[in-house]
């Protein structure tokens, strides 16, 4: 296992009834880097993401976090060890405010339990930190808004604040700009640039301009394998990538 990596995989494999979606992948995510996973549809990005976060058990191979074997641990254990993924919009509670969502996430990560909701002092402490996190993602003024009232881009920002509440060592973002208009994409790129300070981020992203602006390292997957890996400029100029990914994306436009 590479000594420098915070999160790494060796020979990581996942079969679905005889179909190999992730095929002996080696991956090293350097501390405090933004590492993008890209590739054409069906390349195995989501499956790899689910393996790294414990949402799927691997069929083979090994995953390490800071040198500790986390292979096969369930998602809540992986999350507790410091690998958090941004929650999906569908998991937000429509009536709860943005602040309440983040406060709940802070409380859940504190391990203090529900009784402490009775302590106004502790609750205040969560509120303060919740508001800091909301300010970080640009939602300061919407702290009291029910999540159902937030526009799409704002909901995604709230998901990010919830993930940050867990103070993860590694933050995994699954297509953070999916379905966004240009303005929200720019805002999200800015946001990730801001919150990445001192953190390690793994990002699945289809938008190559977003990848170019954020990623230190890009791993291109194709048919469950690593096709090319390196800095964005190097990867985007690689003939194999142009053929396999950028070419396909251009053709689809
Ligand atoms: N639960 C499953 N059962 C069977 N096959 C699956 C399952 N999940 C994924 N696959 C298959 O594994 C392959 C990789 O899928 P995956 O979703 O990981 O790709 P992806 O790179 O994330 O694609 P996309 O960009 O379209 O999201 C695909 O061929 C998919 O059909």
TrEMBL record:
Keywords on this record? ATP-binding, Nucleotide-binding, Transport
**Transcription regulation among the record's keywords?**
no
SMART domains referenced in this protein's UniProt entry, alphabetically: AAA
Provide GO CC annotations from the record: plasma membrane
Question: Key word ATP-binding present in the record?
Answer: yes
Among Gene3D superfamilies, the record links this protein to:
P-loop containing nucleotide triphosphate hydrolases
* Top-level lineage group: Bacteria
Which GO-annotated molecular functions does the record name?
A: ATP binding; ATP hydrolysis activity
Question: By its UniProt entry, which InterPro entries does this protein fall under?
Answer: AAA+_ATPase (IPR003593), ABC_AA/LPS_Transport (IPR051120), ABC_transporter-like_ATP-bd (IPR003439), BCA_ABC_TP_C (IPR032823), P-loop_NTPase (IPR027417)
Where would I find the ABC transporter domain in this sequence?
7-248
**PROSITE patterns, per the entry:** ABC_TRANSPORTER_2 (PS50893)
Name the coiled-coil region(s): none
**Which Pfam family is one of those matched by this entry?**
BCA_ABC_TP_C
Protein name according to UniProt? ABC branched-chain amino acid family transporter,ATPase subunit
Q: Which organism is it from?
A: Micromonospora lupini str. Lupac 08
């Amino acid at each position: 296992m590479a000594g420098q990596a915070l999160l790494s995989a060796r020979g990581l494999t996942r079969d679905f009834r005889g179909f190999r979606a992730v095929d002996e992948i080696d991956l090293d995510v350097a501390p405090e880097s933004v590492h993008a996973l890209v590739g054409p549809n069906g390349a195995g990005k989501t499956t790899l993401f689910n393996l790294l976060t414990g949402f799927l058990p691997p069929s083979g191979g090994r995953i390490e976090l800071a040198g500790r074997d986390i292979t096969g641990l369930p998602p809540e254990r992986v999350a507790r060890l410091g690998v958090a993924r941004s929650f999906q919009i569908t998991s937000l509670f429509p009536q709860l405010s943005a602040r309440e969502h983040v406060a709940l996430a802070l409380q859940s990560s504190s391990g203090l339990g529900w009784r402490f909701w009775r302590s106004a002092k502790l609750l205040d402490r969560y509120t303060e930190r919740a508001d800091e996190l909301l300010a970080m993602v640009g939602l300061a003024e919407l702290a009291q808004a029910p999540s159902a009232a937030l526009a799409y881009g704002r909901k995604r920002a709230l998901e990010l604040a919830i993930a940050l509440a867990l103070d993860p060592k590694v933050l995994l973002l699954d297509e953070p700009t999916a379905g966004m208009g240009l303005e929200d994409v720019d805002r999200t790129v800015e946001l990730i640039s801001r919150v990445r300070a001192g953190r390690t981020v793994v990002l699945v992203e289809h938008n190559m301009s977003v990848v170019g602006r954020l990623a230190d390292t890009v791993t291109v997957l194709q048919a469950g394998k690593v096709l090319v890996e390196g800095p964005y400029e190097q990867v985007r100029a690689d003939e194999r990538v142009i053929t396999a990914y950028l070419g396909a994306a251009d053709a689809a436009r």
